[in-house]
């Protein structure tokens, strides 16, 4: 009787990148592929405050929203290591950047503003989608933070979710962030 391969994380893995990069989708696929737990920071905030992330952002303002994201990250890294899908703007908060840098491994899913806009079907759920100019400006402001925090950068252009998840799995195994165990 063969033993089933299972995996465990040695530290949290943060998926960062601009909206529409596929952070949540890739995180979920990787979690299923490896039998790991995953979580989406925006969904956690939506459940905690019983409103959409965009509504929360508009109601409390960016500074307070970034504090709430950092509080959520603190909670998530206090437990067992998880695959964590971060909101696109989480890198704008200094506290969140410190948590990502010091407490885990960051996978930057790279996407152009144009690709990102084309992937988002419901623009009403996202801040900054009033115009392509505002979209590009937001992406441009965040780009240096994504690059600075990234332990690895994965270009999403033309890649399927399955391929991205598989490639990231291989990277995490090679880097010792993901370890194979047997049960």
| Unreliable residue runs | none
Q: Strand share of the residues?
A: 15-25%
Q: Rg to the nearest angstrom?
A: 16 Å
CATH architecture: 3-Layer(aba) Sandwich
Form type? globular
Order of helices and strands: EEHEHHEHEHHEHE
Mean pLDDT, as a whole number?
A: 90
Count the strands?
Answer: 7
Q: Which structural class matches the secondary elements?
A: alpha/beta
Instruction: Please report the first level of CATH classification, the CATH class.
Output: Alpha Beta
**What kind of assembly state do the chains in view correspond to?**
single chain
Q: How many helices?
A: 7
Give keywords.
single chain; two-stranded antiparallel ribbon; five-stranded parallel sheet; 183 residues; 7 helices; alpha/beta; Rossmann fold
Describe the structure.
The N and C termini lie close together (11 Å). This protein has 183 residues and is an alpha/beta fold. It has helices at residues 23-34, 41-49, 53-78, 94-103, 113-119, 132-149, 161-174; strands at 5-9, 13-16, 38-40, 83-85, 105-110, 152-155, 178-182. A five-stranded parallel β-sheet has the order 3-4-2-5-6, with helices on both faces. A two-stranded antiparallel sheet has the order 1-7. It has one domain (5-174): P-loop containing nucleotide triphosphate hydrolases (Rossmann fold, 3-Layer(aba) Sandwich), CATH 3.40.50. It contains seven helices and seven strands; from the N terminus they run ββαβααβαβααβαβ. The model has no long low-confidence stretch (mean pLDDT 90).
């Amino acid at each position: 009787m063969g033993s089933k391969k299972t995996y465990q994380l040695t530290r949290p893995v943060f998926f960062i990148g601009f909206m529409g990069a596929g952070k949540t989708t890739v995180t979920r696929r990787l979690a299923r592929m490896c039998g790991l737990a995953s979580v989406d920071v925006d969904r956690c905030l939506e459940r905690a405050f019983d409103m959409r992330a965009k509504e929360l952002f508009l109601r409390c303002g960016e500074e307070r929203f970034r504090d709430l994201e950092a509080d959520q990250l603190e909670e998530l890294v206090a437990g067992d290591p998880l695959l964590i899908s971060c909101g696109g703007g989480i890198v704008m908060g200094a506290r969140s950047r410190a948590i990502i840098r010091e407490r885990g491994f960051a996978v930057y899913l790279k996407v152009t503003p144009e690709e990102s806009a084309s992937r988002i079907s419901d623009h009403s759920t996202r801040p900054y989608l009033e115009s392509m100019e505002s979209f590009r400006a937001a992406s441009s402001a965040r780009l240096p933070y994504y690059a600075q925090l990234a332990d690895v950068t994965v270009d999403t252009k033309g890649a399927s979710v399955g391929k991205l998840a598989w490639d990231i799995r291989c990277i995490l195994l090679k880097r010792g962030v993901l370890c194979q165990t047997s049960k």
